[in-house]
């Protein structure tokens, strides 16, 4: 949609259908971060990319007009497309540090009132999310491991989620481009350590608690925050990065959500020195609690040679009646927040390039069965670690 040549957009859509196959296309998204289009936009080398060949600054009204124009043109020109619920809309850019822009850019109430979905073609409402602009190893605690920052950022999407829930419950709100930071060059010591993997765990679970239906985490070469590097490139060997370890943890927490209708709720926790950066979430199946995730993002970095003893939060969990013991799996490293993937395990397992991504079990023996006493299981969660508790 950046180009005003609608024929080009139609041609790209037709090419995608022909080459990829309609059955493999989840949705079509006209316009990427259209809120960044500008009347005086200059691209690489100062090349002018504004009107009339390219779109100018978008308002609610002009965005609705352009979006519906392109959707209608695609549907009328490309044979075989579903006529309803096949398009992603809005796709607003991340506005780090700007709560007003995050909350109000392309306002849903206004744009739907202007008729953005009169044809019923919208499948989902999307937004992008990046936590900040990255930094170095010394910024990991403040930038990614402070829960109040992450939760406040995500809370700014609550208005959109609430409006959809009340007015268009058929349309999910998704974060379809997510990374922990934006930076022209990568910063692995900040973007891809155990601390950033723990950020990812909490980010996913808090987002689900708010009502975010789907998250697409960016996976691009040398972003700094990617999950793995598939081939040797730019002086780095092919490898699995620390951030990958958030994925099996979150997947196990959710379980078979499609068949079990899993819902996620944030729990209140308190007590202990780690409480400000301690978060707990419950996964419910058919209304019954099945699993708990407890993330202790209190910063402790064994790679910094501080010599301090690693603190731990002791969490007392009231379990369902009849439960005699709980199983605890840990996302951890003896090196703490600054750990690289080679010392990280989840449930005692690792996933490596050498294993071709297959689980290598028994790397660390730190899973445990904890007996329930008087209806309570007490779990220790060291700083810069997360645990998954199967009830």
From TrEMBL:
SUPFAM superfamilies: (Trans)glycosidases (SSF51445). Residues 280-388 form the Beta-glucuronidase C-terminal domain. Signal peptide: none annotated. This is Beta-glucuronidase C-terminal domain-containing protein. It comes from the Eukaryota. Transmembrane segments: none annotated. InterPro entries: GH, GH79_Enzymes, GlcAase_C, Glyco_hydro_b.
């Amino acid at each position: 949609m950046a180009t005003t040549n609608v024929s080009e957009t139609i041609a790209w859509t037709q090419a995608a259908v022909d080459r990829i196959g309609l059955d493999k296309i989840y949705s079509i998204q006209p316009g990427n971060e259209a809120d960044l289009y500008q009347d005086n936009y200059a691209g690489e080398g100062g090349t002018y990319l504004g009107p009339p060949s390219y779109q100018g600054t978008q308002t609610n009204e002009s965005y609705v007009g352009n979006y519906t124009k392109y959707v209608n043109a695609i549907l009328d020109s490309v044979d075989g497309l579903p006529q309803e619920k096949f398009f992603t809309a809005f796709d607003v850019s991340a506005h780090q540090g700007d709560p007003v822009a995050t909350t109000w850019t392309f306002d849903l109430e206004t744009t739907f009132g202007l008729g953005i979905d009169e044809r019923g073609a919208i499948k989902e409402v999307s937004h992008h999310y990046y936590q900040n602009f990255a930094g170095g190893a010394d910024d990991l605690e403040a930038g990614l491991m402070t829960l109040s920052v992450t939760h406040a950022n995500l809370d700014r999407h609550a208005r959109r989620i609430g409006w959809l829930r009340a007015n268009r419950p058929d349309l999910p709100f998704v974060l379809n481009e997510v990374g922990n930071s934006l930076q022209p060059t990568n910063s692995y010591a900040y973007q891809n350590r155990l601390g950033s993997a723990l950020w990812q765990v909490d980010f996913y679970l808090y987002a689900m608690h708010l009502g975010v239906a789907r998250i697409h985490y960016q996976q691009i070469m040398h972003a700094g925050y990617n999950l793995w590097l598939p081939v040797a490139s730019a002086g780095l060997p092919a490898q699995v990065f620390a951030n990958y370890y958030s994925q099996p943890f979150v997947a196990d927490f959710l379980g078979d959500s499609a068949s079990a209708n899993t819902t996620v709720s944030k729990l209140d926790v308190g007590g202990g020195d780690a409480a400000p950066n301690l978060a707990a979430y419950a996964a419910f199946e058919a209304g019954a609690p099945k699993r708990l995730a407890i993330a202790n993002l209190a910063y402790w970095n064994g790679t910094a040679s501080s010599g301090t003893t690693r603190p731990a939060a002791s969490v007392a969990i009231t379990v369902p009646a009849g439960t005699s013991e709980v199983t605890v799996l840990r996302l951890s490293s003896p090196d703490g927040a600054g750990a690289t993937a080679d010392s990280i395990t989840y449930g005692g397992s690792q996933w490596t390039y050498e294993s071709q991504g297959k689980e290598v079990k028994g790397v660390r023996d730190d899973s445990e069965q904890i007996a329930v006493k008087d209806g309570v299981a007490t779990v220790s969660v060291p700083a810069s670690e997360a645990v998954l508790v199967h009830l």
